[in-house]
Amino acid sequence: MGIRLATKEDLKWVNEHYRKVGFVPSNLENETVALVTYKNEYAGIGRIVYLHKEEAELGGIYIVEEFRGLSLANELVEYLVKETNKRNLKRVYCLPFEKLKNFYEKFGFKEFDLKEDTINRKVLKKHQWCRENYDENVLLLKL
After folding, report:
1. Rounded to two decimals, what is the model's pTM?
2. How far apart are CA 8 and CA 120, in angstroms?
3. In the Cβ-directed half-sphere of 53, how many Cα atoms lie within 13 Å?
4. Is residue 9 within 8 Å of 42, Cβ to Cβ?
5. Count of helix runs (H) and strand runs (E) in the chain
6. Mean local confidence (pLDDT), 114-135
7. What is the Rg, in whole angstroms, of the alpha carbon atoms belonging to the chain?
8. Strand order of the sheet with strand 55-63?
9. Number of domains, the chain
10. Range of the domain at 62
11. pLDDT tens for residues 24-66?
12. What is the pLDDT of residue 50?
């Protein structure tokens, strides 16, 4: 198992898999995209989208079906959380399906208190879109 940052040459594979699950394509302009490999094959992807210098969204976590059950998502999210820590971001958002709440809590993510927390407008708009367009409930978490 290995993790490395995606390059422009990797974008075709990345976006092909994001398309399969209905995720927005990556372009590397305001993102850090990480690739997980397993036995020298692409096994998964995840990304950090920078909203501005103090805030980002961690997401786009996808493990190719044949590689699921190998704890690759754990390694990937841990890697991405470390990347956000290196940048000293004030806030990192995550919009997972509700069934993944416990998974993300292991990495320090917590639910927003909508009465007390200020939320980035782009993230709030995306959260509303997700809730309207996905069959599963989507949470709004912060690191």
Report:
1. 0.92
2. 28
3. 0
4. no
5. 4, 7
6. 87
7. 15
8. 2-5, 31-38, 41-52, 55-63, 91-94, 141-142, 110-111
9. 1
10. 2-142
11. 999 999 999 999 999 999 999 999 999 998 999 999 999 999 9
12. 96
83: tokens are 């990347």
Q: Amino acid identity of 24?
A: V
Q: Compute CA 98 distance to the chain's CA centroid, rounded to the nearest angstrom.
A: 14
CATH code for the domain of 84: 3.40.630.30
Backbone angles phi, psi at 104, to 5 degrees: -70, -30
Interatomic CA distance for residues 17 and 109, integer angstroms: 25
What the block records as the tokens of 10 is 């990797």
pLDDT at 10: 96
Q: Please, how many CA atoms are within 13 Å of residue 54, restricted to the half-sphere of its CB?
A: 3
pLDDT band at 134 (very low <50, low <70, confident <90, very high): confident
Tell me the C-alpha distance between 113 and 33, whole Å: 29
Query: Contact, 71 vs 43, CB < 8 A?
Result: no
Distances (CA, A) of 2 to 8, 9, 72: 19, 18, 9
